[in-house]
Records
---
Amino acid sequence: MPAPAAPNSDDQLSLFSPPPSSPKQPIIYPLHHSLSSPVSRIAISWSRGNTLRLSLLPQPSSNGGIEVNDGDDSSGGSVVEVKLSAGNGGIDDDAQWRRIVYGSVAPFAMFQSRKNSAFSFSKLPVGALSNVDWWEYVMEYSKEINSLLGTTKSMASSIVDDPRRILMVDEEPTSLKAAWELLEIFYADKQSQAWLPERLVDWLADYDSLFSETQFTVYSKLVDLQQRLLNMQTIEDDQKYWDCLSSALALGWLDIVVKLLRLHGSYQLDQLSRRETENGLVEAVVVLVSKMPRLRPELQAGRLGECYKNKTDFIKGWETWRARVTKLECSGYWVQCGHQKTREGLRKILQIMLGNTEHLSATTCHWVELYIAHFIYIRPFTVGFESLYSQAQKCIQLKPVSHPHSLMGLMVGILGENTEVVLAECSRAFGPWMVTHAIELLTAGNDQSEILLHEVRQNLGGVSIEELHRLVYAQVLASNQLTWQIAPVYLTSCRPGMGMLEILLYRQPVHLKQGLLKNLEICRLYELDTVSSNIMKIAGVHHWKHGRKGSGIFWLQQAQDEIRLNKIAQQLFDFVGKSVSEESFKQWEGLIELLGSDTRTAGGLEFLHKYRDFKRSLQQVVDGKATDAARQAVESLILLMKNPSTPQQFWLPLLHDSLKLLTWREGPLLDVAQTNLLLNKLQELSMARMRPDYVEADLPTQALSTVRLALATNLGRAILEEQ
Amino acid sequence: MAVNQFQTQQHQNLQIHRLPQSKFIDAVRWLPPFAAFDKFIVLSLFDPTSSSSTIELHSLDFPDSANPNPILSPLSTFSSPSLSRTSFLKTSQSLIAFSTFSGSLDFLSPNYSSPDEVSLDSLPSLQEKGFHVGPISCIDVLERDCVSVGEDGRVNLVGFGDGKASYRRVFDSDGLVSYSAVKWASPMEFATGGLGCSLQWWDQRRKPGEPALQFKGKWSQKTASGVVHSIDIHPSRKHTCMAGGSSGTVFGWDLRWPQQPIVLSGVGIGERPSNPISESEVWEVQFDCHLQSSNITSMSSSMMPVMMCSEEGILAVLEPGAEPFELLEEPCAINSFDINKQNYSDVICSLEWESLAILSRS
């Protein structure tokens, strides 16, 4: 696929990619390559995974003739691989991705089998199974996947030792984990649906830092303040301090608020006497903040607020608390407070606690923050998706964003109950792994999305959306040499997956033992006997061609491929005819052992086994052993000559080797019938010599007549003996 | 390499630690220590992004009993741009030998100055054309003597003299037989294994240049189709070989009764054990001397306990007449393991999914 190039400098090339948000302004990525001359043509093709391979070709030189590559780059062109890393969700390290990929296999397979058994028990669609067990399975799956994405730690946890340290980052949070937790909150964790607002508060506390990439956030404000705190004396004179206080409060980060308030100058011992009223007001606010009622079963140790498990208690608590806030707000002490900034700041805090919309809007930075603030101070008992969504719409109108973060898009999709949008956002921002595993949550209890995702679509080639995404993910897995063996788990959970699995297995290299056996093991697990035997045939032919005759025969024997065994037997016999002498037989010993005596799988090769036995007993005869050995040798000879699989080219050498037996001094070893059999064979051989394709054995010219004479002599002696 | 994540499980007397790596582990071995309390491991790693192999030496520390997570700290690394993937790795006191899929045999010599400072010196390697054709499937090292076998059917002895490695061809089957496993029994004897569950005994004094003894077991069709992947010979009972191979087969071969295999595990053998522990490839077997002292009475029995790992992700100890004892069950294959010969309670395994497992038994 040649495409016009847009070179803008000697060794740089631009890659245009229209971002979905602003289609008119392409983003330009510079691309480095080693060509020194201008690029005239580019061929683009897909490489492994989501990598593009660009073949850059320079202008052909004008002198026309065939150019010899003299080591100069300019004549050859260059191939560059471009990784389209849109879907990494903040995880840049390939190894880390593979760890997630490996870890998710077991939970996925476990969940599939539970789903299948639940389905077969109830004969109902999975969505209709709303029992407690089912949701436990869903949560277990979600938790296991979540645990792979990093350890959960709150960024806003406080340290006792250092009162001036307000933010603690234990681990860099990733968008991938944030997105998964968001899905978990809405789709999997049905047990805590009643505490949804509080779960969202926690979620934002953990991941607000992620939004800082694209916009200003409360988190980034606090990071700034953290820097200033270290070298500031009278903190309460700084407007930023008060801004941060109200912002943190708006998002419900109570511990940070209390910690910051305790840094207020009026707490210092030398000031305490002069600023008694001021300090009293600050402390009153601290008490109110730390007593704020929260509708949730429990709080992490060290977190502030008062928990209420059920709604009626919470409403009671909330009203009492609000009354206390109002009381403080109307208190006469404000007039006595001498410090203007403290007075204003504290009253703003009280306004936020009273749910003043303007203040909430002013103190939050983007719509998600505003949305969360609404949950905390204006509508703490919100339930039902409809109101959730309209509320979110209002917040977006109040705080529009030009470049929305992927998590924002995901959130809008979830709140709007728009499965397609959720999938599209997952796919765009986090790639096929996320989509494949997230679909399990989306369909867990939602009939509509289940129908949408499970419906077989003709325009997708007769698969459902769910299966399509699994196939895409399997493709990504199959493109990596370390993860290809995981692909079968996902392929086999799709209708056309078996066929694709066969293709995948056929594509794997067979020349290394480990790889071949892994391949065969997968065949065994999925009962693909035909594939397995075909792969063994491929391996057998490969080994045979590369001179590893033993391995070649072994694998063809495993595949019970008699046609090929017979074919290579011919080649092997030619080789034997030349190389088998008494001393080199030890080379063959191992192969003959391997062939065993099982004629069924050995093809024409069983001849070798008998040939070896014959040679061995003949050897003993030559060594001068007793007549018994000679009799045994004759038996072997007759067996060999009777057997149809003994190649014709061996008849004469066999007989010639046995001359000593035919002319045995102590008396004829062969009876009349046996001698006649051998004479017939000899006759057949003389006829065959007329044919053009006859291969002359490497024997003296008079060999045939010598053998005939010996046989005739033996026949005469045998007749005499029998009379 | 930083250790990012730990998973620690506690069985009754077994601690399992999983240490994820960011590269594929081709092979892992303990390196015999230089001082009493050192623990060193040698890893052969393959990086798929750069398609390069490295040999790394790490020290393994268990910081304290309260925090049992082991720490793997890299001491030295060896890599060379021409290095192909490792097919087999073996260590002795003074030598780290590793064979490659391209048919070369490389040697490193550990140079000890302190527990935190061990360097790897590269010794001359063997990569001549006549040495092996194609991959070397297995090697074994006894002090500074090395034996190598390959799919090409060659058996070579490698020794060091005049500062360079030289080899002597013991046997060349000209491709008619392929070997997949080898193990020294004594400086003059070794055993090999290959296709069709075959075993050969070689004795350089009695019968140089050909196998002194061939194992001819009467296998059923299914087992005869197997490949021997690993052989072990107990240092104090040289007449018994233990072999592991396809279809979960683990069997002993007593040279005194060469026709009669002692089957510990496997399918499709006349009188088969009630419940085969594995039906897939057994990648490695090693005699397990861990229970030797406590279980002295059963020592008189014909076969000692054997540890095996399999493609199905099972690490277990087998003993004739006893139920198999499973140490580890992984969702992915266990490609190799090694028992620490200085401290039999320590076992290290390489898992298919780029991870190491360290087991401490007590």
---
Amino acid sequence: MIKLFSLKQQKKDGESSPRPGNQKKPSAAQLRITKDINELNLPKTCSTEFPDPDDLLTFKLIICPDEGFYRTGRFVFSFKVGPNYPHEPPKVKCETQVYHPNIDQQGNVCLNILREDWKPVLTINSIVYGLQYLFLEPNAEDPLNKEAAEVLTNNRRLFEQNVQKAMRGGQVGGLYFERCLK
Amino acid sequence: MGESAQDSYQKRWGHLRKVLERQGPFGHPEFEPSPEILEFVMNGCKILVIGAGGLGCELLKDLALMGFKNIHVIDMDTIELSNLNRQFLFRRKDIGMSKAECAAAFINSRVHGCQVTPHYKRIQDFDESFYRQFHVIVCGLDSIVARRWINGMMISMLQYDDGVLDQSSLIPIVDGGTEGFKGNARVIMPGLTACIECTLDLYPPQITYPLCTIANTPRLPEHCIEYVKVVQWPKENPWGSNIDGDDPQHITWIYEKSAERALQFNITGLSYRLVQGVVKNIIPAVASTNAVIAAVCATEVFKLATSCCVPMNNYMVFNDVDGIYSYTYEAEKKSNCLACSQVPQTLEIKDPSKMKLKDLIQVLCESASFQMRNPGLTTYINGKNKTLYMSTIKSIEERTRDNLNKTLTDLGLSDNCEIMVADQTSPNTLILKLKYLIEDVNMD
């Protein structure tokens, strides 16, 4: 155990001499995200884009599903990692308008690990897999886009047609979707 | 000192001299009673109090009355009406003014001889040279981000000689926290005992509701408020800005929209206060809990400064919801803590003007002590993060590839600078300190 009093008496002499070569240290959030990014193990349907390679806290994820309702589509998500990562999850928004029961018109995504079930042991990779899964298995039970969820439950064929229509660019259920085919 | 002044000095500090000038059963093993210790408390020891709110006011009062004369206080906030019931250094006329400045002025005029220096700033506005002047840092904070920041700062200031901590570079942190009738106090010896990051899991997660629940099946008034916050505000953005919890117009807007939604779903219990609470994440504050926790913290500061008693080891919880309960235990240091397990390793570089980045990466992959696979390298230059090379991410690889053929000197990496290396072979990002065997000629 240290004895501060005697230690600090000694320290007095050399106190004001700054040590050379000291630089600002990265935060724990920065260290952790560096690790997360370096070890991103993306499925072949996903890729990332870093607008500024020096800023690992802001990036985009592009998902091009190769099976399921959304194959041939291209969907862009923006990631913003805050200073409280990994205590708090990153903020993720879908930038592509998509006809999907779990994604709304504003790009909010209903994925449990992005909100209520986030834990610090999860990584960026976990979110990537979670998002990819949403395109393979849209979940009608926790809808953000209620109409899409109802169609999915009642008429899968119509849902598939609606998805195709929306991805080609067009009106579905009174909403206009921009073309997002690969 | 005249005789009567000497008398009043004896009287005023007699209680401290009893503990500092006599041996006692709880003393540090190396404690040597002496009048010099009181002298150190009053004139040598420099304390930093972070936060001049509920805990901060108590802390400043306690420390000042304990004889500490050289105290600095940082707070970025201003005084609000709702603070006045417990933040007793402030008066109605002070509303809108800096907490740090008002608190310092109050203590300085009330406690003779005490010199509190206020800083109406954010902790992030100061650098290492500021923090290095203090002997102990006491925190009365309400934010995890701020705790993590100051924790990281103290850890980054540790100096190691051949992997052994130089204890004179260590500044203890005493951290208090309260939430209603519950509180905790802890002593952190950065690098030696559990730090904030080691025990990050202890903080309760922020309450969040599933997005689909708030969008489709709200059952609680909180769901309605969250809906307006998350969905309606970004959509309609009435003031073209982020939500400001201190702006009554914003709160009123959210209140009205939430009320509409509550009515639609037959939900009762929504009030303006609740909206304020949810939006600002307000935690009820109880004056007596603050007083207890601050007293514990101030006592720990005194123990650390004087060694008259062994400091608490190291985490105390306090709860007076129903009766009084307290328990102290030793929070354990996490062996792979992101912050405090990071003892920088030194890497000797023969000639930085000849060594290229790709040579450095080769060393990391081939040397027996590293054996890395795909190291990603980043550093801090002029306070900004810089990615040196990362092979695993295509878009980053393409734009950092040119760095491979640059020398360390060309990349702006100076002697003793630190680089962060992430690799799949280690659970954490490593910090490497580059030590140049040939000094840069220009650097004199």
